[in-house]
Amino acid sequence: MIFGHVKKILQPKSKVLAALGLVFLCVLAVAAGRRYFSPSAFRFTSDERALLRSRGEPGSPVWIVEYMDYECPPCRQAYQIIEDYFKKNRSKIYFQVRFYPMPAHRNALRAAQYAECAAREGRFWKFHDILLTQQKEWSGAAQGQAEPFFRGYAGKLGLDSRRFVLCLEDPGAARAVGEDMKAARSVGVQRAPTFFMNGKMVVGVRALEEELKK
Amino acid sequence: MNRFPWLWVIRAGVGLLFVVSGYMKLIEPYQNFLAVIYDYQFVTGWAARGMAMAVPWAELVFGVFLLAGLWVRLSAGALWILNTAFIGVIGSALIRKLPVKDCGCFGHSAVSLSLEKALALDGALWLIFLFLFIIEYHAAPQRRGFRFLFLK
Predict the structure, then answer these.
(1) What string of DSSP letters covers A70-117?
(2) How far B137 CA sits from the closest chain A CA (Å)?
(3) Banded pLDDT at B101 (limits 50, 70, 90)
(4) How far apart are the C-alpha atoms of A133 and A154, rounded to whole Å?
(5) 3-class state of residue B55 by DSSP
(6) Residue B119 to residue B23: CA distance in whole angstroms
(7) Counting beta carbons within 10 angstroms of the beta carbon of residue A6, is it exposed (0 to 12), middle (13 to 18) or buried (19 or more)?
(8) What three-state secondary structure class fits A62?
């Protein structure tokens, strides 16, 4: 009889304890999942390749790294926002572009390879500008059919040297883009555009606008 | 005698679905789900950030409770409310023809659902919740009102 009374008193409490225990297990499972599947923390690196796609003063208080896809419309919107912000705060920002062409975009990888080769010729920013401002022109093309557009833009910038053409044929350019993508995934990037502003992850245009207002 | 012995299978299946959905979002940086919320264009600022942090935890915790058979009615009720909200948000996105390609229901995992498929899934879940509640309600005629949620 006593046991029955004790059981009656404890039952609601045992449910609360069980619930707390389950919540604790959930927290542990999430922590383990993040450690195993997820990312390392983002660390800003400025290797020789990255320097070719950077602008501003390296010692600036604000540094922004963008993982972007040339064929994504939000990346084009973000480009305008960043350009305006950079013009107003040139001395305060160090901005770097890294490639994250998404599989759903048929010509994004090739566009990134062209941009990588343009960077090796010291013309990255002009080629970057053309790819984004003319995005609507080439992004609707079938896979592999945007090549004439890219060659046209390269030609306008004087990027038709033998070295540039060899770069495009060299698997090294594709490998370099692949390394950017691998590095992106290791820090939790899942879509473009994703920014790291002084190490803080900001995903998408709306979040970027809110962050820049601060 | 239990008239619906297979009821726990349905309950466990629904619970598991929400556990997976919440977990897949939680193991990624919350900023990825925040970007999905912004895609739907219905909240911004602190409300969006709060939802990005809270919704996956709610899915996971209530899903685990449902799976474990703990506070079943409360957990099912909370998930039903979430489910109804998802239907509203996805339906609104479809009506407004927003350029959302992936519902973001399972984070950025291998499971990618278009808005139409997500709406169909959420609609089916809504009916399952309704069925579960009707069964539970008729099984416990002595517990009505607010007590109905907490006494199981």
Answers:
(1) TT-HHHHHHHHHHHHHHHHTGGGEEEEEEE---TTSTTHHHHHHHHHH
(2) 21
(3) confident
(4) 14
(5) helix
(6) 20
(7) exposed
(8) strand
Half-sphere exposure at residue A117, Cβ-oriented, CA atoms within 13 angstroms: 27
User: Using CA atoms, how far apart are residues A22 and B66, in angstroms rounded to an integer?
Assistant: 11
Checking A169-177 for CB contacts under 8 A at 24+ apart, the result is A173/A113, A173/A116, A173/A117, A173/A120, A174/A109, A174/A113, A176/A49, A176/A116, A177/A99, A177/A101, A177/A109, A177/A112, A177/A113, A177/A116
- Judging contacts by C-beta atoms under 8 Å, the chain A residues touching residue B45 are 210
CA-based nearest distance A2→chain B, Å: 23
Interatomic CA distance for residues B109 and A185, integer angstroms: 12
Instruction: Provide the sign of the torsion angle of the four alpha carbons A55, A61, A67, A69, taken in this order.
Output: negative
CA A159 – CA B97 distance, rounded (Å): 41
Q: Tell me if ipTM is over 0.90.
A: no
Is B65 strand, coil or helix? Answer: helix
Instruction: Give the number of other Cβ atoms within 10 Å of residue A2's Cβ.
Output: 6
A17 → chain B, closest CA residue: B70
Q: Which residue in chain B has the smallest CA separation from A205?
A: B35
Only one residue has tokens 């305008």, namely: A80
Cβ within 8 Å, pair A33-B35: no
Q: Could you give phi then psi for residue B61, rounded to 5 degrees?
A: -70, -50
* pLDDT one-digit tens code per residue, B25-35: 999 999 999 99
**Whether residue B141 has a cis bond before it, omega within 30° of 0:** no
pLDDT confidence of residue A140? 83
Total residue length of chain B: 152
Chain centroid to Cα A91, Å, comes to 23
Q: Between chains, do B70 and A203 touch, taking CB under 8 Å as contact?
A: no
Chain B nearest C-alpha distance from A210 (Å): 7
Residue range A66-88, pLDDT digits in tens: 999 999 999 999 999 999 998 88
B117: Cβ–Cβ under 8 A, 6 or more apart, which residues? B103
Q: Which two tokens stand for residue B6?
A: 């297979």
Interchain contact, A210 vs B32, CB within 8 Å: no
Strand order in the sheet with A62-68: A54-56, A93-99, A62-68, A194-197, A200-203
- Please state the φ and ψ torsions of residue A162, each to the nearest 5 degrees: -60, -35
